[in-house]
Amino acid sequence: MARRIILANPRGFCAGVDRAIQTVDTILKTARPHSAAAQAHANTNADADGAPHALPPVYVRRQIVHNRHVVEQLAARGAVFVEELDEIPDEAAAAGVPVVFSAHGVSPDVQREADRRGLTIIDATCPLVGKVHREVLRFVREGYEIVYIGHNGHDEAVGVVGEAPDHVHLIEHAADVDGLDFAPGTKLVLLTQTTLSVDETADVIDALQKRFPWIELPPSSDICYATSNRQEAVKLVAQQADAMVIVGSANSSNSVRLMEVADEALGARGTAHRVDDAAEMDPSWFDGVDTIGVSSGASVPDELVTGVVERLRTLGFDEVDTVETIQENMHFVLPKALRSV
Hints:
The chain is an alpha/beta fold. The chain is built from eleven helices and twelve strands. The active site is at 156 (proton donor).
């Protein structure tokens, strides 16, 4: 009997991730030498041996998307990744070196710091994340308290909560609902992190509605179309598989959840594994496995999936099929500052 691979489709890049990566890629491809004045300023800050500090073509605050390989590839081409804006030297600000905000968005505090320093900002925040930011501002203006379901410390959640920290109450689990205290009559609305799934938030929403029956749900789901689509495809593939491999980084919320969804769908038949790339796969995972499902998170280049498939072929999985649940045609234009580049 042939051992086979079933690829889930859709998988990999979503429109927001693609836009963010294209943003940095476009800057790298069109980077021009810095002005003579800026380079002269850099020369005054030369190393001890007289070599000037070269200014990079672009800085990126945090990982542009949560994938190690994407970040490493862009860094190899000259992009400099920083955790915070204070790591960007003043001469870079004076030279107008662009600074890209990642797909996950930033808080107003970060934007104010950028404005104070006169940094040239290119905002690659996913439009769906930006939508949640705008909802926060609108609901606060209308007098609401906001319950936000998200992962504490995730870049997206930090940015959203930062819009109105006194009015946005972050919870992760149903048990966290007990820690909330709103008087009857308080205007209350629910928002969610875009990378969470309907399944993942269902028990939290149920607990919220039992405790605060008047809480309003958002006018439309904040859960990203790509998150839902990838999870539905994985569930379908898992019905036909004995094990699954999900390609994605450990700090990618949607990739980790995709693995959990795969594991739940497999049940007693098998196990789901998350890997950054083919090198992390352990051949012993596939002992006794005839059919293995493969998918990837929304920030994963398909070349990494190809690498996994090729590795599985060397382990005897010769037949490759694809299960498609829906065709995605979503596209986001580049940030305004780059559209004429």
